[in-house]
Amino acid sequence: MIVAVSHAGDSHLLAVRAALRRSRTDLTLLDLSQFPARGRLTIDHDEQGRSALLLLDSGNVIDSEEIECVWWRRPQQYSLDESLTGLSADFALEQVHAAFSGLWSSLAVSWVNDPYLTLNACHKVRQLALAERHGFAIPRTTITNEPARAAAFLESLGGRRTVCKPLRSMATCWKPTSLVTSEDCARLEDVRLSPTILQEYVEGMDVRITVVGSEIFAAFIDARHTTSPQDFRPAYAEAKVGSLELPTALSSKVLQLMNSLGLEFAAVDVRLQEDGHFVFLELNPAGQWLFVEARTGQLITSAFAAHLANLARLHTQGVTQPPRPCGQYGPRKTPWLVSELTARHG
Prior knowledge:
The chain has 346 residues and is α+β, with helices and mostly antiparallel strands. It contains ten helices and 16 strands. The longest helix is centred in the first third of the chain and has 21 residues. The two termini are 28 Å apart.
């Protein structure tokens, strides 16, 4: 059984499910927003060993013993019974979180991607450090909530353009990468309110690298002459888009970075400069790809579905997903807050 932890309105889930069905493989949806208000979870330990049963709002049952592969795809917030408020709600939420997070860490299945490793990989600070370690060029960057440091960084760039971006995206408060304006410079004291990323603006063309297992799909997104050259997302319809062949050395660095983060899938954003050099910007372990596929014709959905099916098939043959290196930030050592568990990324 292949299980997707997502929600019914996710277009990527629907596309992958359709691709799997064409190969006569099923994909079962597990929507965490059903629990515990409508769904039911039971984890048993008896003489036969441990097993977990999840009763879904639809009436379907997921037996943990039948799961071969899990696709961790933008999990939803848990939903509590409406009768719970205040401290009672907080207590109940902590219990459901503890039950599910314990279940994830005990499942002997293949993951795309492991939720603990996904959380670690989302941190932009960690991404930049690992990318630099693997030989990527990265922009000059400061992450600070000290106004004087922010001012000194801007001054050190000698008037060159600078961008500001959030450390973490939120579906309820989405903010694109933006150019720092003179008005922003006049209110640098606001930086003290929360850490922010200030980064040297990298001139050039965006390259979206979608990694599925060991397969790489690269596409150029030329937004240089659009209304949003610093962030192609708001102006994607205006941008020129097409497939791109990556240099072998860059592909190797991308796969090394993926291995260090322990990921089976990710969307990696880099900038291609006029001189042919690539500069790493960031990585999203739950990134989207349908918008690229629609403009390039790249068969990313088919590759993703085939990767899930292959991991499930290997699991039935007794071949388990190899452990990935994750250093001191190992998945079992990371505090996993409920808000982080259900964070949604663009």
